[in-house]
Recover the amino acids of this structure.
């Protein structure tokens, strides 16, 4: 069966510091991968998605970036964090079956920027 | 533009009673509709989806949802609520064009009262 991991689970970082969040998927090959942010325990906003190694699409312009160095690894980064970057970051994966495929979410990383 | 509305921020229901969590959507084209549940500080768990066919979709944990094209709704239902059903519920929609973006509603917090 497939499993998705995210780490760290929680992170407290000062403003202006760098960020690296990691997401890995097990038990599947060539998945679509997604990064979402959830603010204040409510709606999710898609940040990035990837259909393959090195292929990243950005949905929202901001000071975050994403990379996919390996097939089942997806990394969310920032060079300098802002207060507004605080939130709950969720990684998701899906098989490449088109728009009917289901996205499955990881446990999330709670980021607090102080 | 695609959008999803969950008109109720909070729904309270007594244990054993039927529950309904409402969702309406606005899309151009045929929608693909999803329901997810989120427990505190956890990732989203997939409950069910509507792609095509029977308007009544059955999912995990005894939940079901009814697709109503004329009312552009996809309400989540369960015949008998459990205290353990208390969580945050998200409706999401995707259209079969462009990126495989899921557009999420703002969520409905369900509280089942013992």
């Amino acid at each position: 069966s497939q499993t998705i991991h995210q780490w760290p689970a929680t992170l407290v970082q000062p403003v202006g510091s760098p960020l690296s969040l990691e997401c890995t998927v097990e038990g599947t090959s060539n998945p679509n991968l997604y990064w979402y942010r959830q603010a204040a325990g409510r709606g999710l906003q898609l940040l990035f998605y990837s259909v393959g190694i090195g292929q990243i699409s950005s949905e929202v312009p901001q000071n975050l970036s994403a990379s996919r160095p390996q097939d089942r690894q997806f990394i969310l980064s920032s060079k300098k964090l802002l207060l507004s970057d605080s939130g709950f970051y969720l990684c998701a994966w899906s098989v490449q079956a088109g728009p009917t495929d289901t996205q499955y979410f990881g446990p999330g990383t709670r980021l607090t920027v102080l | 533009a695609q959008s999803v509305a969950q008109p109720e921020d909070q729904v309270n229901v007594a244990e054993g009673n039927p529950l309904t969590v409402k969702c309406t959507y606005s899309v151009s084209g045929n929608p693909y509709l999803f329901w997810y549940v989120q427990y505190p500080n956890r990732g989203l768990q997939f409950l069910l989806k509507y792609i095509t066919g029977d308007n009544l979709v059955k999912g995990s944990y005894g939940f079901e949802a009814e697709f109503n094209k004329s009312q552009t709704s996809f309400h989540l239902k369960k015949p008998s609520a459990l205290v353990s059903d208390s969580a945050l519920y998200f409706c999401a929609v995707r259209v079969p064009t462009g990126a495989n973006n899921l557009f999420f509603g703002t969520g409905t917090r369900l509280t089942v009262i013992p």
Summary: The CA atoms of residues 15 and 105 of chain A lie 27 Å apart. The longest strand of chain A covers residues 44-52.
